[in-house]
């Protein structure tokens, strides 16, 4: 028995049993070759085997089973030939005899309806032996296509430490064939292109071609994709003879790019040997790979690229892919240089940039942005996608033909970080798709010090991409030509299908996690191997020189040329006197800050006619036969009545803010889980026809012909990924209100990484402003520990104002505070204040994130309504809302001044009225908690000189705003030289955010309300 090649002997057994026959079904599946078992069980088993697909040619593998079941119920329901076959097969007729050619097939015509090589056809029909042999060959072809990547030579080190299960060789794989069969000619199925123009090939040549295509330096993983056009496209790109050949000019270009990649790292290593730089050594081919993706995509029309990547190779990418001036990169190594502008800056391998340049290969101008990101691996992925989606949106690039994303990943992070999965699941959602991302995995085959066999349960680090049917191209990074070809295919895939694709660059890390790390501690065998491994440049240059593609002198001159560029940049960098953080902006807003008065505090009120028009539109059902739900009709009617009465609840105030901005040309995007309706069924910005699927109506998109678009979109059930996406969206255009709403505020902590690393600190680290707004439903209403607190205390703890410093008084007190703070944290108690704070996000001459605690019960509380008068021209957001009742009229008689924020105000007011203490207790609401309104709190305290000062909150003492306001109110008291105590009223400290017992909740509420109204 002859064993066919190294790889074939490792393939799992896919031998076709003797109980199979073939028939060309004449039906809607005409042309499909359908294998059928001798009985129902055998047939159903075979229909699901991978070996069956070559014969189905696009038919459903379930079709035969369905036909068999139909025949069992009614034999006349199938074609006569199938009826005959099923009768004879179930009666036990031997294989090959159960099939009877249908009328019309001439004697000697193959039932396969394809000509066989001469000498293989018996008199009258094709023998069962011929059929079995062809089925076996087609199964072998299919096996290579399905699992050939498992046996590809992908590891440059030859160690292959992945967890791919490479089965032991089945000794009976080729039972059909002997050595003499290698020269037999077999008909090629329609599911392969290895023959080119040839329809038949000897078995020996079939095996060799399959080995060369699927088991050398490229592993093509694609047959999990459930789209035959796409899988056929990939087959064609890899199986067509000669398609992967590169010309000599392309080879010289690869060498030149490899020289730049390697010599840049060597230059930095010489100059700063003890500095961390997270170099690219071991995967130098990444630079020519990325440049090839950009070149190819530019040819397909893309002119803007947004890149997200981790530390490794970042400086090299900035230098040799983005072409950022080398001196700007080099001066980052000089720790003595101070920043010449705002911001604390960040380590050099976290910085972003944006650069426009000429692509010399395509002679087209392109823009490349690398998004700044923290050490939190993969956190940048959704941010990049949001940024790309925004640019596509504002450019009208509805198919993603002009703007695209490239995401780089490490192998351990790609498999281990859940945000990768969340980001992939945004890839095909209508309001989130970027029409295809090219993912490049720099597969070090190790995560920091962790062996991949201990780091993941999946065979490949890239398996997460299978969930969205993204093809995965594994490639040996020491074969630059294979890498470049794969990059070309990936770019064409993205341009053709508008879907994600993954390039898995299997490489190694020549040094440790960073240049001063010692990898031998934990990976001695790998690093002994690496120490003897020649560089990819050395190997490739020798190959080209030996083949006469380049000369030794040409190679050396190219090296000298780039070395000279680096040295000249080093001299220029020494002349730098300061570092400008603004040089590293990944989202420059050209012209936004020009002509604006940075110290002007805007008003945000609008005309009553505008309020009335918006209110009328959002309370009127669409015209025509659009059927609105009966319950919604009542809600719309109630809205119309409020408009008539010149009042607004929370939902209507939102509409007024959004609608007025839309009419001013400001795009509004509201994104999150169930935001179209609103978790608490208050918003209803998208009306659904009750009888026609997918027929919807968005009133706010029908205000006026010249308005900006309103995007309101339910997201996937993700916080981390979606908030990152919407943050990225907000970075692209400052003249847009971008809002992410949590289903409950508690769930925001699932996105804490985006909040901490990007939203809170982004401007300080990366000089990157964002006006993103977070809606976080917050309030203790007896709904348990996971539906009460949006963790207000966490946002306040991250606020950057000084609790011990009372800012300088003056006309610009408020705006100066807003300039200096990192974000705004608000907990509004009136619809009018929500209206103003949302409009203020756009009216300000700069951008800061807004963290807004939003209500639940207040959405429908009759007392929580605002008059139109509070939203008219001349009105604005109130940082503090003072008491305006009897207590305010006789301030000196007030015995207790209570400060609070949010919903608890209404509960305290109700208790005060019940106990008839309206003249004795004053209640002031702090609506903007950060930056803290020192000036207004001072005025309130000074107004009530004889009052005890209290802070009341519904949160537990170790939560909520208490820890934030307490030192700041004491600073105010110190400023006033009033030696008063500050009393806390609220729940006791707790590890859990709230009780899960409704009765206990009410008891706690009654207890602290009773304490609040003691005078």
Automatic annotation (TrEMBL):
<keyword id="KW-0324">Glycolysis</keyword>
<dbReference type="GO" id="GO:0006099">
    <property type="term" value="P:tricarboxylic acid cycle"/>
</dbReference>
<dbReference type="GO" id="GO:0045252">
    <property type="term" value="C:oxoglutarate dehydrogenase complex"/>
</dbReference>
<dbReference type="InterPro" id="IPR031717">
    <property type="entry name" value="ODO-1/KGD_C"/>
</dbReference>
<dbReference type="InterPro" id="IPR029061">
    <property type="entry name" value="THDP-binding"/>
</dbReference>
<keyword id="KW-0496">Mitochondrion</keyword>
<dbReference type="Pfam" id="PF02779">
    <property type="entry name" value="Transket_pyr"/>
</dbReference>
<dbReference type="Pfam" id="PF16078">
    <property type="entry name" value="2-oxogl_dehyd_N"/>
</dbReference>
<keyword id="KW-0560">Oxidoreductase</keyword>
<keyword id="KW-0106">Calcium</keyword>
<keyword id="KW-0786">Thiamine pyrophosphate</keyword>
<dbReference type="GO" id="GO:0005634">
    <property type="term" value="C:nucleus"/>
</dbReference>
<dbReference type="InterPro" id="IPR011603">
    <property type="entry name" value="2oxoglutarate_DH_E1"/>
</dbReference>
<dbReference type="GO" id="GO:0005739">
    <property type="term" value="C:mitochondrion"/>
</dbReference>
<comment type="similarity">
    <text>Belongs to the alpha-ketoglutarate dehydrogenase family.</text>
</comment>
<dbReference type="InterPro" id="IPR032106">
    <property type="entry name" value="2-oxogl_dehyd_N"/>
</dbReference>
<keyword id="KW-0460">Magnesium</keyword>
<dbReference type="InterPro" id="IPR042179">
    <property type="entry name" value="KGD_C_sf"/>
</dbReference>
<keyword id="KW-0479">Metal-binding</keyword>
<dbReference type="Pfam" id="PF00676">
    <property type="entry name" value="E1_dh"/>
</dbReference>
<keyword id="KW-1017">Isopeptide bond</keyword>
<dbReference type="InterPro" id="IPR001017">
    <property type="entry name" value="DH_E1"/>
</dbReference>
<comment type="function">
    <text>The 2-oxoglutarate dehydrogenase complex catalyzes the overall conversion of 2-oxoglutarate to succinyl-CoA and CO(2). It contains multiple copies of three enzymatic components: 2-oxoglutarate dehydrogenase (E1), dihydrolipoamide succinyltransferase (E2) and lipoamide dehydrogenase (E3).</text>
</comment>
<keyword id="KW-0832">Ubl conjugation</keyword>
<dbReference type="InterPro" id="IPR005475">
    <property type="entry name" value="Transketolase-like_Pyr-bd"/>
</dbReference>
<dbReference type="GO" id="GO:0006096">
    <property type="term" value="P:glycolytic process"/>
</dbReference>
<keyword id="KW-0539">Nucleus</keyword>
<dbReference type="GO" id="GO:0004591">
    <property type="term" value="F:oxoglutarate dehydrogenase (succinyl-transferring) activity"/>
</dbReference>
<feature type="domain" description="Transketolase-like pyrimidine-binding">
    <location>
        <begin position="648"/>
        <end position="861"/>
    </location>
</feature>
<protein>
    <recommendedName>
        <fullName>2-oxoglutarate dehydrogenase complex component E1</fullName>
        <ecNumber>1.2.4.2</ecNumber>
    </recommendedName>
</protein>
<keyword id="KW-0809">Transit peptide</keyword>
<dbReference type="GO" id="GO:0030976">
    <property type="term" value="F:thiamine pyrophosphate binding"/>
</dbReference>
<dbReference type="Pfam" id="PF16870">
    <property type="entry name" value="OxoGdeHyase_C"/>
</dbReference>
<dbReference type="GO" id="GO:0046872">
    <property type="term" value="F:metal ion binding"/>
</dbReference>
């Amino acid at each position: 028995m002859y064993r066919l090649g190294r790889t074939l002997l490792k393939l799992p057994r896919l031998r076709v049993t003797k109980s199979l026959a073939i028939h060309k079904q004449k039906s809607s599946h005409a042309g499909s070759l359908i294998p059928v078992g001798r009985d129902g069980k055998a047939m159903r088993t075979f229909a699901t085997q991978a070996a069956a697909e070559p014969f189905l040619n696009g038919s459903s593998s379930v079709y035969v089973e369905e036909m068999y079941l139909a025949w069992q119920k009614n034999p006349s329901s199938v074609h006569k030939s199938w009826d005959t076959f099923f009768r004879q097969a179930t009666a036990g007729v031997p294989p090959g005899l159960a099939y009877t050619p249908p009328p019309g097939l001439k004697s000697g015509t193959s039932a396969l309806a394809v000509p066989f090589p001469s000498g293989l056809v018996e008199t009258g029909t094709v023998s069962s032996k011929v059929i079995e042999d062809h089925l076996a060959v087609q199964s072998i072809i299919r096996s290579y296509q399905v699992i050939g990547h498992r046996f590809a030579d992908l590891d440059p080190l030859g160690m292959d430490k992945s967890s791919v299960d490479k089965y032991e060789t089945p000794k009976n794989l080729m039972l059909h064939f002997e050595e003499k069969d290698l020269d037999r000619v077999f008909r090629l199925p329609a599911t392969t292109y290895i023959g080119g123009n040839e329809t038949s090939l000897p078995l020996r040549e079939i095996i060799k071609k399959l080995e060369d295509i699927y088991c050398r330096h490229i592993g093509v993983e694609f047959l999990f994709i459930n789209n035959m056009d796409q899988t056929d496209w990939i087959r064609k790109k890899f199986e067509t003879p000669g398609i992967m050949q590169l010309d000599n000019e392309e080879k010289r270009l690869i060498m030149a790019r490899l020289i730049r990649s390697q010599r840049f790292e060597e230059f930095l290593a010489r100059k700063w040997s003890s500095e961390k730089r997270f170099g690219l050594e071991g995967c130098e081919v990444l630079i020519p790979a990325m440049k090839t993706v950009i070149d190819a995509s530019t040819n397909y029309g893309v002119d803007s690229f947004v890149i997200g990547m981790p530390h490794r190779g970042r400086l090299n990418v900035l230098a040799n892919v983005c072409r950022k001036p080398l001196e700007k990169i080099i001066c980052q190594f000089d720790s003595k240089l101070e920043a010449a502008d705002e911001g604390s800056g960040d380590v050099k391998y976290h910085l972003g940039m944006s650069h426009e340049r000429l692509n010399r290969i395509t002679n087209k101008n392109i823009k490349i942005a690398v998004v700044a990101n923290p050490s939190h691996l993969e956190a940048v992925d959704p941010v990049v996608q949001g940024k790309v989606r925004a640019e596509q949106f504002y450019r009208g690039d509805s198919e993603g033909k002009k703007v695209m994303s490239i995401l780089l990943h490490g192998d351990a992070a790609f498999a281990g970080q859940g945000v990768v999965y969340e980001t992939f699941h945004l890839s095909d959602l209508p309001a989130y798709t970027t029409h295809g991302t090219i993912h490049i995995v720099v597969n070090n085959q190790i995560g920091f010090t962790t062996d991949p066999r201990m780091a993941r349960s999946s065979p490949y680090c890239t398996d997460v991409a299978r969930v969205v049917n993204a093809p995965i191209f594994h490639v040996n990074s020491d074969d630059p030509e294979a890498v470049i070809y794969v990059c070309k295919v990936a770019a064409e895939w993205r341009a053709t299908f508008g879907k994600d694709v993954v390039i898995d660059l299997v490489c190694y890390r020549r040094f440790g996690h960073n240049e001063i790390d010692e990898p031998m501690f934990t990976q001695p065998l790998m690093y002994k191997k690496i120490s003897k491994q020649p560089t990819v440049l050395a190997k490739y240059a020798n190959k080209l020189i030996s083949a006469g593609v380049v000369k030794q002198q040409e190679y050396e001159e190219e090296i000298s040329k780039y070395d000279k560029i680096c040295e000249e940049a080093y001299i220029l960098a020494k002349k730098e006197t300061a570092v400008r953080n603004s040089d590293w902006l990944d989202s420059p807003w050209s012209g936004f800050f020009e002509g604006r008065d940075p110290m002007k505090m805007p008003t945000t009120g609008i005309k009553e006619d505008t309020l009335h028009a918006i209110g009328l539109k959002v309370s009127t059902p669409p015209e025509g036969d659009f059927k609105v739900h009966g319950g919604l009709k009542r809600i719309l009617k109630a809205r119309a009545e409020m408009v008539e009465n010149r009042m607004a609840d929370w939902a209507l105030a939102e509409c007024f803010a959004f609608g007025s901005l839309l009419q001013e040309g400001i795009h509004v995007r509201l994104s999150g889980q169930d935001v179209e309706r609103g978790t608490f069924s208050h918003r209803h910005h998208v009306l659904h026809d009750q009888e026609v699927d997918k027929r919807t109506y968005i009133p706010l998109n029908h205000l006026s012909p010249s308005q900006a678009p309103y995007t309101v979109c339910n997201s996937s059930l993700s916080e981390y990924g979606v908030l990152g996406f919407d943050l990225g969206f907000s970075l692209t255009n400052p003249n847009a209100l971008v809002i992410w709403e949590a289903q409950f505020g508690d769930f925001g902590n699932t996105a804490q990484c985006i909040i901490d690393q990007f939203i809170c600190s982004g401007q300080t680290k990366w000089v990157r402003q964002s006006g993103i707004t977070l809606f976080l439903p917050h309030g203790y209403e007896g709904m348990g520990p996971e539906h009460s607190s949006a963790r207000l205390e966490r946002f306040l703890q991250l606020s950057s104002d000084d609790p011990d410093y009372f800012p300088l008084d003056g006309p610009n007190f408020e705006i100066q505070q807003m300039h200096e703070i990192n974000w705004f944290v608000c907990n509004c108690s009136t619809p009018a204040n929500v209206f103003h704070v949302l409009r203020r996000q756009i009216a300000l001459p700069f951008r800061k994130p807004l963290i807004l605690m939003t209500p639940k019960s207040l959405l429908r509380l009759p007392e929580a309504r605002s008059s139109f008068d509070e939203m008219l021209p001349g009105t604005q957001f109130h940082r503090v809302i003072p008491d305006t009742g009897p207590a305010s009229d006789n301030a000196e008689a007030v015995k207790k001044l209570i400060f609070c924020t949010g919903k608890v105000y209404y509960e305290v007011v109700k208790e005060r009225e019940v106990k008839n203490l309206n003249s004795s207790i004053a209640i002031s609401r702090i609506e903007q908690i950060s930056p803290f309104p020192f000036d207004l709190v001072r005025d309130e305290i000074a107004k009530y000189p004889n009052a005890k000062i209290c802070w009341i909150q519904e949160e537990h003492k170790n939560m909520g705003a208490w820890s934030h306001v307490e030192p700041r109110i004491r600073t105010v008291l110190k400023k006033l030289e009033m030696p008063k105590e500050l009393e806390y009223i609220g729940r006791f400290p707790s590890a859990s955010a709230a009780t899960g017992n409704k009765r206990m909740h009410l008891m706690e509420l009654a207890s602290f309300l009773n304490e609040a109204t003691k005078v």
